Amino acid sequence: MTGFTETDLRAIAGRRSFERAQEYLDAVTVTEVGDGWITATVHGTHPYAVELSLDGGDAPAGECDCPYGLEGNFCKHLVGVGLTTLSRAESLPEQRTRARSRTRRLDAWLAALSKEELLALVREQLGEDPQLRRRLELRAASARGDLDEVRARVRELLDIGPFTQYGYVEYADARAYGDQAAQAVSAITALTSAGRAADALSLAREAMSLLHAVQESIDDSDGRLGEVGAELAEAHLDACRATPPDPEELAPWLVEHLLGDVDDLTGIDPLDYEEILGAQGMAGVRRLAAEAWRRNRTGWAEKYLMERLAKAGGDVDAVVAVHAADLDPDGGTHLFIARELDTAGRPDEALRWAERGVEEAEDPALVATDLIDYLCERHSRAGRLPRAVAVRRDHFAARRTLAAYQQLRTVARAADRWDAERATALALLRADAEQRPPHRYGGPVLLDALLDDGDVDAAWQAATETGAHDRQWLTLADRSRVSRPADALGVYLRLIGPLLQETGNAVYEQVTSLLLGMRACHQRLNTQDEFTTYVAALRAAHKRKRNLMRLLGEHGL
After folding, report:
1. CB-based burial label for 384 (10 Å; 0-12, 13-18, 19+)
2. Which CA distances in Å does 169 have to 161, 176, 231?
3. 235 with 201: CB under 8 angstroms?
4. Are the C-beta atoms of 54 and 85 separated by less than 8 Å?
């Protein structure tokens, strides 16, 4: 009867939301069961209104006005209502039958009323519900084309005054304001339906400005204001379609709007107006956009508009020109241009732009990693492995990180040149290790590189000569229990001392791990008695650390 099961609820909501819904089973108040739906209130952080479909098809469906639900997710509140519905499934058929019967009886009663009786009923409801009165007054003003009245009511609906505290609309009141603002959009749409599209156009633009003026004074965390902005943009577009304005007036307005801050709220797409503007009007938009871009080549809005128009027209050269006028110092823009040229089937130009990104970078160490990856992939795919090695070599020389070393190793091995490249790379890392204190930056990269190569003996020698970070000493010890048990044991003993002065479960886990390493070394050295004596003394000294004692027992220590 519900159209879904508990398994369906778990699948669509996910494990976390399903589990958290268990906390809300006693917080669900079923408001009404209708013909195929159920409404309820879930009392969480705030009372949330939920509507759940009882005939959802292959999966449960519904809506909730909590922030997570407003993003289109099947939230814990919906799950809670779903579980409550399933627990009452036996009573649903009867409730739905009663709901259908109530609807039929209401329709029949309304149909039997005279015009005067219906008017009396509506007037009674208007007297009891101010919100309904305002909505109908606005709809009536729109229907009769009373622009002055509609404009006054729209301004009133967009006024945040009744919702503010100290000049700001808090989250708890933001949705109510958004719902009220949506009534203003409905009134503008009604003007278009009433044959007053020109008036609707003018009022839509005014409403955009009014809404933008209060945007920063509203906590729009749930995105309701953004929805209203999008609806307002759609109302403006519908008005233009109903009564197309002069392209010579519309084109400048569009460009000015798109380059201003108001578009952050409405998100108007100039291409939606292509049919309305016609070829001449769109040419005007492109001309005005180009003029604005030439005045401010680094402006985000100017660049975005130019790129949007250029891509729509298939003009890759214009896209390149827009981005070439404002290049990032790390080569990121060069890479974007290269990819655009690749898409346009111009790989040679793309490669040259990528190479320029490296050549023109202000600091080789800051070149975008994606750009280096792109160049190496292009050279490798074309069989130019020596060039790919050269790119990785230069990148490593500038960065000198383990990741850069690993990437150089991969391509150099493919080119059968790793031995020579490794010697050069390790020489650079050795020079760094001799200059930097080992306790800084997580220890010398030289040791990480040698360990990554699996050259443990060379890593021991480097650590002894240049020093190492405790993290690196621990890795060395772990990898040398078999080949160098005495050296590894010395590391474990040094590292465990300071930890025994601390408390906390994370510390106790580290202590246990070190003891296990020490045990392996003593077994290799055939000195288990020494280890047994050490652990006994440790237990006696730290017996009050119950969690530590428990961990040691679990590991047989």
Report:
1. middle
2. 9, 10, 21
3. no
4. yes
Q: Rounded distance, CA 486 to CA 478, Å?
A: 12
Q: How far is CA 375 from the centre of its chain?
A: 29
C-alpha 456/C-alpha 468 separation (Å) is 14
Q: Which residues contact residue 394 at a Cβ distance below 8 angstroms, ignoring those fewer than 6 apart?
A: 358, 364
Q: Which of 221, 137, 150 is nearest to 185 (CA)?
A: 150
Backbone torsions φ then ψ of 555, nearest 5 degrees = -105, 10
In tens digits, the chain (557 residues) has pLDDT values of 556 788 888 888 888 888 888 888 888 887 677 767 888 888 876 788 898 887 655 567 888 888 778 767 888 899 998 888 888 777 777 777 777 788 889 899 999 999 999 999 999 998 888 878 877 887 788 777 788 888 998 999 999 998 998 889 998 888 889 988 988 998 898 888 888 899 999 999 999 999 999 999 999 887 888 889 999 999 999 999 999 999 999 999 999 999 987 778 888 999 999 999 999 999 999 999 999 999 999 899 999 999 999 998 889 999 999 999 999 999 999 999 999 999 999 999 999 999 999 999 889 999 999 999 999 999 999 999 999 999 999 999 999 999 999 999 999 999 999 999 999 999 999 998 888 766 556 689 999 999 999 999 999 999 998 889 999 999 999 999 999 999 999 999 999 999 999 999 999 999 999 999 999 999 999 999 999 999 999 999 999 999 999 999 999 98
CA atoms within 13 A on the CB side of 503: 6
Measured distance CA(465)–CA(394) in Å, rounded: 27
Structural contact between residues 498 and 513, judged by C-beta atoms closer than 8 angstroms:
no
Q: What is the pTM of this model?
A: 0.68
Half-sphere exposure of 463 (CA within 13 A, CB side): 26
55: CB partners within 8 A, 6+ apart: 3, 36
Residue 416 is classified by DSSP as T
- Which residues are registered as beta bridge partners of 488? none
Give the integer Cα–Cα distance in Å for 307 and 271: 12
Query: Angle, nearest 10°, between helix axes 445-453 and 470-479?
Result: 20
Q: How many CB atoms lie within 10 A of CB 547?
A: 13
Can you point out the beta strands (E) in 81-171? none
**What phi, psi does 441 have (nearest 5°)?**
55, 25
- The token pair at 287 is 């001309």
Q: Would you list the DSSP string of 350-368?
A: HHHHHHHHHHT-S-GGGS-
Distance CA 335, CA 353 (A): 7
**Cα gap 34→53, rounded to integer Å:** 10
Spatial contact of 337 and 320, defined as CB atoms under 8 Å apart:
yes
